Records
---
Amino acid sequence: MTRAVAVLGAGIGAEHIDGYLALPGRYRVVHVCDLDPTRAAAQAARCGATVSAEIDGVLADPAVELVDICLPPRLHGPVARAALAAGKHVIVEKPLAGSLLDARQLAGIARDRGRQVFPVFQYRYGQAFAVLDALVAAGLTGRPEVASLETHWNRDSAYYSVPWRGKWSHELGGAVLSHAIHAHDLLSRYFGRVEEVSAMLDTRINGIETEDCAAIALRTSGGGLATSSITLGAADDTSRLRFVFQNLTAESGCLPYTPGQGNWRFTARAPADQAAIDQIITDAPAVLEGFAGFLAAVADGLDGAGTAVTLEDGIAAVELATAIYHADRTGARVSLPLDATIPVCQGLAP
């Protein structure tokens, strides 16, 4: 089944279109909507889509089944609600919404409308994670013990010259919400949802409103402990993951945008187990990666099958970010799930 898609936003939306073009039997991009007509036209020409600067007109098209929201963060929640009201399924770039309250309200609307919402966590789709999934399924990992996450990127004044970046009213949060959210999602996937967090956040690198550095400690439902180190003042862009399980350690390379690719190491704690681990690595089939993998899973999800990222995953990511901000501002060790009546659940800005 080929589904008609409207892509709203031709910035990161260009990478989404790469994914759609890799799946010609499953999707057809029919609209590209952006306030910059030149940018929109360049992307529309790649897929034979029409160009628009009016979201309402795109949402009114009965042929569109799926709306892909690649707009600045402050628009994610409002446009997702409008798309659901128009009877569309929705893909939403991160963050899903600007507050935990908004995210939960979005879930209610989706349920009432009988439509699905897919938060964008394309980092999940990579060969290394297919291997790690197979190792978990084979019982070779054992329980989660300790993890370390590094989101060490280089973001300078040129990056923040885009008007909406670095502002609470537009970006809705800083490096915790815009950069490390992917690493935190992967931690939750393999170690279980975070149940407790302590955090220190700071703005050290750029003259912006939001944080660009953080040191975070987390305890997960699987019993594991984790640290997350974040800076936007590194010399280059590096994402590094190290998952220590009872029976093996999985360690990524340093690729910033595709941590599921590159040279991972899967090392048995007991050398006698290494042969079984190596056999799993050898036997693992090739998988679609990045946005192509994410969008293939979305198509499967719309067909009632597969392992697509769920709306609950997106809500959990917003809740964890909310808990991190709350832990920093109060100096307390914060437990999850959060009490929705605390002010930070209504909006992350201080």
---
Amino acid sequence: MTAARGSAAQRPAKPEKAPGKHRIVVPFDDNRLLAHLLGEYDSHLALIESRLGIEAHAHGNVVTLTGPQPACEIGRTVLNQIYDRVRKGETVTPGDIDGLIRHARSGPPAGSGTGTAQVRTRKRIVTARTPMQSDYIRALDRHDLVFGIGPAGTGKTYLAVAQAASYLERGLVERIVLSRPAVEAGERLGFLPGDMRDKVDPYLRPLYDALYDVLPPEKVEKDLETGTIEIAPLAFMRGRTLAHSFVILDEAQNTTSMQMKMFLTRHGEGSRMVITGDPTQIDLPPGQKSGLDEAVRLLDNIEGIQTVAFTAADVVRSELVARIVAAYDGVPQPSGRGRSG
């Protein structure tokens, strides 16, 4: 006797939902904004998929997320935040999306603020890309003196310059003073061609680059001519009182103890001061103690002073830079990355 046609024994088993899979449907009100939400050729969705290890599909005015529930929940949060930004007319870049994912993964910020911090200038809106960057931006707004320490590529200097530009535009300070120790030049400055500005400009170029990125070029040029924006080597700070100014000392790991004390005591009425540096990249002569390390230790827990310490997890310059910093910090890297077959 043959088995009946279509019996359970002959029919293919119905595929079961993969264990751990979760599905979330995220609707959006305005179809006109979806192109900006999804990105060109759905590039924003592709980035969310790769970062979170989920599947994201757009259909009509909804996006369906499939994968582990925690990752899908993060994806929903990030999509809603992107939508809020495009609804306000803000431009969203891949770096912004990466930052939103980092914030969402970390949960509530460590500081007393909530959400992702931003700095606004006439030229652009600068958005924090890691929770520590959000804490840093809030510290710059709340404290008279902030130390921003950590590895290259974490945005220490760029965010400080952006905040300085914002303060200047809003009339909260009368000028910006940016400084660096020209350690590499040492006694050789006199042998370089040109006047003093020509001699020191190569060492201060990163500060110029940040300024031109957050302010219109014509304003930067005008303010440099009038002295509203001043960029000078640390040695030029001696004997001055910097009142009603936003003052930034970059590459402060290359200051001596006496130089750091000299700079700190330039702080004047109505001023904000930011000191940035990477304690792992000291260019001082062997045996010379860094003034940055000493200052952070001595000034800990003093009212009005805040230290924000970035780590390799906060590197936003590029994924490659993040891996380089992690390698130098001794953090094991996933096997197979960077190798060819």
